[in-house]
Design goal:
199 residues, alpha+beta, 5-stranded mixed sheet, 7 strands
Length: 199
C-alpha cells in the first residue's frame, strides 16, 4: 500500500509542542502512474518491450565499451501472405505465439522487444559470442518443437545475430545486419558476426 503524508508543526511561544498530520492512501494514483509507464515501454499486443524501450537500452549499452553485447534479430516469415489469406486476427495470434516462445527463452537473460510489425530484437548484455550462438541454436530447437506439437499457429521465423566485443562500436552491429540484409532477402537473416562490419 502507498500513502502520502502531510505534516504541520504546532508551536506555542516559539516552541514546538505538537505535529499535526494527515495520511491518505494513494494506491490509485501510484497504479495509474505505473500503468502509464508500462504502456510507454511495452507493446500492447504481445506485452513485451517496444522499440522505444529497446532503443533506449541499446543506446545506454553503447556507452559502456567494457561490456560485450550480442543482438539477435528475428523476422516472422510470410506474415503478409497470412494477413491476405486468413486476416489480421490470425496474424495477431501468430505474433503473440512467437512473442511467447521468445519470452520463454529470453525473458530472464536478455532484453526482448517487438521492434516492428513482424520483427523482434533480443539484446544480450555481457554475454560471449558463443553464448549468443548457443541461444540461436536453442531458438531453432524450440521453434521445431513447438511446430511438432502442433499446438497453436505454425511459426516460421528467420533470424540472425551479431556480436560487439569490448572494442567494437554499436554501429558495427547495425552495419552487420545492414550488409546481411543487402545480400539476402529481408526475411532471410543469416548468422553474421563482427567480420561482416569490416571494410
Amino acid at each position: 500500500m502507498w500513502f502520502e503524508e502531510y505534516a504541520t508543526p504546532i508551536y506555542e511561544k516559539d516552541e514546538l509542542v505538537a505535529v499535526q498530520g494527515i495520511i491518505r492512501n494513494i494506491d490509485e494514483r501510484v497504479k495509474f502512474i505505473q500503468d502509464i509507464e508500462y504502456q510507454m515501454s511495452h507493446d500492447p499486443l504481445t506485452n513485451i518491450h517496444n522499440r522505444q524501450f529497446f532503443d533506449n537500452i541499446a543506446a545506454k549499452s553503447n556507452l559502456d565499451f567494457d561490456t560485450p553485447v550480442a543482438m539477435i534479430l528475428c523476422d516472422l516469415d510470410e506474415l503478409k501472405y497470412m494477413n491476405d489469406t486468413h486476416g489480421h486476427k490470425k496474424v495477431d495470434e501468430l505474433i503473440k505465439a512467437a512473442a511467447n516462445l521468445l519470452k520463454r527463452i529470453f525473458s530472464d537473460i536478455a532484453v526482448l522487444a517487438r521492434v516492428g510489425g513482424d520483427e523482434f530484437a533480443i539484446l544480450l548484455i555481457d554475454k560471449s559470442k558463443q553464448e549468443g550462438e548457443s541461444l540461436c541454436e536453442l531458438l531453432k530447437e524450440e521453434i521445431l518443437l513447438q511446430n511438432s506439437i502442433k499446438k497453436g499457429p505454425h511459426i516460421s521465423m528467420s533470424f540472425g545475430h551479431a556480436y560487439r566485443s569490448h572494442s567494437n562500436s554499436w554501429k558495427r552491429i547495425k552495419k552487420c545486419f545492414k550488409i546481411n540484409g543487402e545480400e539476402k532477402n529481408r526475411n532471410s537473416f543469416g548468422p553474421v558476426d563482427e567480420r561482416n562490419g569490416k571494410q
